[in-house]
C-alpha cells in the first residue's frame, strides 16, 4: 500500500527586522498547515529576520533577537506535532551562517547551514555570511542558554546532514543551491533522500519564473523525489519584490502551486503525496548503479513518522492530482508585481497616499495605471475578507474600524490615497494636459492642474539679474548649452513642486501625514541618462524604473482592455516628448530624436551591456552580424559609440536615481545591481572606439 503524507509549504510577506510581526506570520502559517493535516511545514529563507536585512546581518542584535523569536516558536502551543523547517541566521564558532532550523515538538533536530551563497546581481550574501562549503560534514553546535532552558538540549548537530524519520528521509537545500551546477538534491536523491525542501528569498524579475520552476520540476523529473519550494513574498524594505509562488512537485509533476502576486501576508499550500511513487520512480538501473558511487549523508534519526500509522486502507486520504503550471504574461506581471510592491510600501511607511506628477506621457501614465491596479487588488482582497488588508486600507485613508469603512470600488479608494498633478508651462500642449485630466478622472485620483510659468520666469530672471545674460531656447537662436539649461529649470521645478504638494495636500484635505512622491523614469531612459538630475525622476520610489519602454507600451495596451480604459489608447498613439522646448510650426520635441536612438535599440544595448557583458567593441561585433545589411557598418558603429558616449557622461545620474522596483535584468541601478564608476573616459575616443573604426575601415576597403 502507499505511504501517504500531507506536506505544506508557504509564501510569507516578511519585513526585515520586524521580528514580532515575522514570528506572528510564521505561527499563522504553521496553524494553517496543521489545519490541512500537514505533518511538515517549510518556510522561506531567513524568515525570522526577513531576507533583506542587508548589513544588519553584521549586528549581534540580529542574531540575539532571532534566537529570542525562535525560543518563542519552539514553545508555542500551536507549533507542536508538526515537523518544522524554519530559516534564520546563526553564528557558529564566531562565523555567521544562513541556516535552516529543523525541529519537532519543542526540540531542535539539527541545523543546516547554506552551502553556496547568492552573490551576484542583487545578492551580496557573502558580505554577511560564510558558505558552509563542506558537503556532508557535520559537527556539534553549542546552543544558547535561552534555548537550553526551553528544550533541555545543550548541543545539536550542525552541518550538511539529512533527517531520517520512521518512514522517509528528508534533506534541505536553500535557494541558490538549486541554481548551482552540482545542486545538492542530485547526490541526495542518489543517497535515498525522498523529500527535498528549498527555502528561498527569490525576487521577481520579468520572465524569470519559468527558469525557477523549470529547475525545480527538472530536478525531480530527473532524480525523482518530492520537492517543496517556499519563498518570501512582498517588499521587505528594499527595491526587490519577492514573488512567492510556493510549489510542491512530485517526480517532475506539479501538485501544488501558490500565487506569484498577492496582498495576503500568509499563503500556505498543501499536497497529499505517496512516498511509494518516489521509490518506484527511482527503480531505473542507472539510478541504482550511480547510487553505489555516491558518498552517504549523515542521518539524524527522529522517532516519528510523517505518514499516519496503520496498515488498513483509508479512503479519506486522497493523493493530490497533478496540475499545469500557471504563468503570468509579462503584461500581467507589470500590472501585479509593482502594484503589490507599492501597497507594501504604502502600508508599512504609514504614509497618507501617493503623489504623481502626471505629464500626459506614457511613462507617468504607466505609473498611474499601476496604482489603479493596486487599488483593484486592495478591493479584491477586501471582498475576500482579508482583515489585514482591510485594516491597512482604513489606516491609509485615515479611518479606524469604528468608521466601518471597507473599500468596495477602486476608483473611490484611489480618490482617497492617490493624488496627481499636471504641471504645465508655455511649452506644454493642449493634448498632454487633456490626456492627464481624462486619465486622472478615469482612475479617480485627486487631481490638480497648474501652470508654473511664473516660477520658471522667476528662476530665469534671477540668473539674468546676477549675470546680465539672458539664455534663449535653441529655436529662438540660443546655443545648446542655453537650451539645455532652460529645459532643466522646468524639470527641476517640477520636482520641487511635487514635494511641496506631497507634503501639503493631505493638510488641504483635512488629513494628517504626507504623501509618497512617485517617479516615472523607465529603465531605458535611466540607462541612456535621458533625464534631468533632480527632476521628476527624483522621487521617493519608482514602480517602473526597472521596466523598458517597449514593455510599458505592451502593458498599457493590455490595461486598456483588461481594465476597460479606452483613454489609454491616446497615450499609445502619442509621440513621446518631454515638452521642455517651445513648439513651433516646424519643430516638436521628440524623445527618440533627442536621444539619437530608438527605445527598442536602447533595450538591445542594455541587454548586451549587462547580460552579455559587452563593452563597445564586442557589442559592435555582435550587432554587425545581427543588423547588417539593414544597417551599414558605419551606422552601427555610430549608434554603438553614441550609446556608450551618453552612457558614460550620464552615469553619475545613477548614483542618485530614485529607488525603483527591480524588474529588468539590464537595470543600470547603481545601488548594488550594476556597480560601475561614475566618472568614465569619453567613449567616443576610447581605444575600443578606435578598434571599431579600424573594423569599419577594413569592411569599407573590402
Please sum up the structure shown.
By secondary structure, this protein is of the alpha/beta class. It has 23 helices and 20 strands.
Q: What order do the helices and strands come in, and which of them pair?
A:
Blueprint: E1 4-12, H1 19-35, E2 40-42, H2 60-75, E3 83-92, E4 95-103, E5 108-113, E6 138-142, H3 145-151, E7 155-159, E8 162-164, E9 169-174, H4 176-179, H5 184-190, E10 195-200, H6 209-223, E11 226-234, E12 242-243, E13 247-250, E14 253-257, E15 266-274, H7 275-281, H8 285-291, E16 299-301, H9 330-349, E17 354-357, H10 362-383, H11 387-396, H12 410-417, E18 418-424, H13 430-443, E19 446-451, H14 453-467, H15 480-508, E20 516-517, H16 523-528, H17 549-562, H18 568-573, H19 591-595, H20 599-610, H21 616-627, H22 633-650, H23 687-701
Parallel strand pairs: 1-2, 1-11, 2-3, 5-7, 8-16, 9-10, 10-11, 17-18, 17-20, 18-19
Antiparallel strand pairs: 1-15, 3-4, 4-5, 6-7, 8-9, 11-12, 11-13, 13-14
Characterize the structure shown.
The chain has 702 residues and is an alpha/beta fold. Helices cover 41% and strands 16% of the residues. The chain has a 16-stranded mixed sheet that branches. Helix 9 (330-349) packs across helix 10. The chain is globular. The mean pLDDT is 93. It catalyses: deamido-NAD(+) + L-glutamine + ATP + H2O = L-glutamate + AMP + diphosphate + NAD(+) + H(+). GO terms for molecular function: ATP binding; glutaminase activity; NAD+ synthase (glutamine-hydrolyzing) activity. Keywords: ATP-binding, Ligase, NAD, Nucleotide-binding.
